[in-house]
UniProtKB/TrEMBL annotation:
Major localization listed first in the record, in broad terms: membrane
GO molecular function: symporter activity
Location within or outside the cell: Membrane
Bilayer disposition of the protein: Multi-pass membrane protein
Organism: Actinobacillus ureae ATCC 25976
Keywords associated with the record: Membrane, Symport, Transmembrane, Transmembrane helix, Transport
Keyword Transport carried by entry: yes
InterPro entries: Na/ntran_symport, SNS_sf, YocR/YhdH-like
Family: Belongs to the sodium:neurotransmitter symporter (SNF) (TC 2.A.22) family.
Record-annotated membrane-spanning stretches: 15-34, 46-64, 95-119, 154-176, 188-214, 226-252, 264-290, 310-340, 352-372, 392-414, 435-451
Origin: domain of life: Bacteria
Record's protein name: Transporter
Amino acid sequence: MSNKPVERQSWSNRLAYVMTVAGATVGFGATWRFPYLVGENGGGAYVFLFCIAMIVIGIPMILVENVIGRRIKVNAIDAFSGTANGKKIASGWKILGYMGLLGAFGILAYYMVLGGWVLNYIGSLLSGTLDLSSPVTVETTAAYYKESIQNSPLAIIGYTAIFVLVNYFILVKGIVDGIERSVKYLMPILFVFLLVMVIRNVTLPSAAEGIAFYLMPDFSKITPKLFVFVLGQVFFALSLGFGVLITLSSYLDKNENLVKTATITGIMNTLIAVLAGFMIFPSLFSFGVAPNSGPTLVFQSLPIVFSNMWGGSIFAVIFFSLLVVAALTTSLTIYEVIITALQEKTKMSRKAAIALTLGTIFVVGNIPSVLGDNEWKHITIMGKSIFDAFDYISGNILFILTALGSAIFVGFVLKDEAKAELGANKTFTNIWFNYVRFVIPVIILAIFFNSL
């Protein structure tokens, strides 16, 4: 421990910040979760509602967290402190910061295991253990998934540990030399991989059928319940409610235009999510694979597609490498939420804070999440496996309640200070402020009750 105050860096420029936020908000939300939800919920109807939801809840809430984060430029707990409109902010508001950290812990507990799964697939493809050089059946991919993912806890723990170590070596270099510099290279790589997969898949025979399913909304499938469900996915897609955007914007220069950066963030997230669909659905329809296979879409259905494709093994490696890059750009920023809080609350050195954060989550979260599929499958929380419980509690309860509290904090506590921090023209600022104050809480409550 050291009594020296933690030195705060700032992003080198707007592009660095936007790229980092885009990396934080892409991850498995865009490349894994979004495609399978589209497949389960009517294809184009879901995509159409997702784009609307980004405007209705996504960008306004990005601004909420940007304002909170940049206001006094501290960690995600202390961001809910200080003074507002000449009055001291009650210490009870800090509970929102602690809930965000707890949510960040919950998502990392299972998220890093997904990274381990993907590394397992890459290792198996490169070694030939998973051979996609000739067509395979759904029984083959299901058997591989069961044997190599669900029933190989030691291997998955090992792959997860590798993924955690990669995060460690980047994080120890700091915000600028570590996260910013890594994302500067990782995001272009992600885009290149994504474009390679999109071009390959939209040129497959019968790809037009998959594109039509993906882009042509069946309006009969659009219901209020589905729209509320999609609004909830936007929270996951944008990393809202667990301190990521609050933490990242705390390193943002005071002269930066928050409205512009929030809009770019929302557009980039939507663009990448939509592109992810183009690399999946044309290929599914080309080879007659059902698009509604749920969370296992990427891990069990797509290998069948690759096995029927010329150069399938190569494209499979590229695809799973893309997933690793997307996961890494997100996990780095989620870890940073907890690391920054530890550093500033305890005056702990950065290296110690990183080791404590990654080590604790690995032991208390990652290992139990792996064992929950096999050795500990008899243990359930709220009727769910350990892996699913971390996902449900963080994504359906903690994130949403933290976001609700953040909107109320901006609308009823910060008030004029929030408007001043936004720095936009008066008309836009007043519209946004009243929308956040009176409409956003109603929308979030609807999402919350729909998710229970």
